[in-house]
Amino acid sequence: MADSPGLARARDVLRVSADDRARVDALSSAASAYVSAASPHLSPSFFEGFALRRIRVLSVHPGFIHCSYHVPASLTDSSTGCLAAGVVVALVDEIGYAAAISDAQNFKVSVDMSVAFPDLSQARAGDRLSITARVLGHKGAYSGTHVLLTNAVTGNVVAEGRHSVFGNLKKAPLKPAATTSLKSNL
């Protein structure tokens, strides 16, 4: 069965060129190399590297994380000058997940996330945000978190998210450091 003209056009529009694919691969490799040098067990995408670079963790307790975040001009919406909604979603995802496993829970995967944007105009380039993530609870392998982003100076709410994660993925043991062995002919 042949594709309709509309479907064929949509496929053409969504097709990724070899040049674009190469650019994304290069950025992902650079981000992975940067993080691998500091922590070999992490492998973020290039976007996570850009979006999360300005986070400063202020406080961590079991089930609670408080961070500050400086809004970079490079991650603002070009038409509004406000922090891009996709960056807010990435922050809710990453910080909500971190809160979910901060009380010794096993690794999990995201199953649901909802984000409300009451006032993105409170997050412009150069602004400092306060981000608070709390675990709402754990039920078996399911955990729910609440993430609140506010302007640190005015206290106005920028965004609010709920993040649900599920799983009982065991943490991979750290690889032992390489050792050298000496053989003796005695």
From TrEMBL:
Cell compartment(s), UniProt: Cytoplasm, Cytoskeleton, Spindle; Cytoplasm, Cytosol; Mitochondrion; Nucleus
GO annotation, cellular component aspect:
cytosol; mitochondrion; nucleus; spindle
GO BP, sorted A to Z: lipid metabolic process
**MF terms in GO:** fatty acyl-CoA hydrolase activity
- What reaction(s) does this enzyme catalyze? a fatty acyl-CoA + H2O = a fatty acid + CoA + H(+)
Signal peptide positions (record): none
Write out the entry's keywords from A to Z. Acetylation, Cytoplasm, Cytoskeleton, Hydrolase, Lipid metabolism, Mitochondrion, Nucleus
Taking the first listed entry, what is the main subcellular location of this protein, grouped into a coarse class? Answer: cytoplasm
Q: What does this protein do?
A: Catalyzes the hydrolysis of acyl-CoAs into free fatty acids and coenzyme A (CoASH), regulating their respective intracellular levels. Has acyl-CoA thioesterase activity towards medium (C12) and long-chain (C18) fatty acyl-CoA substrates. Can also hydrolyze 3-hydroxyphenylacetyl-CoA and 3,4-dihydroxyphenylacetyl-CoA (in vitro). May play a role in controlling adaptive thermogenesis.
Q: How does it assemble?
A: Homotetramer. Interacts with PCTP.
The family annotation for this protein states: Belongs to the thioesterase PaaI family.
Q: What is this protein called?
A: Acyl-coenzyme A thioesterase 13
Gene from which the chain derives: LOC125551168
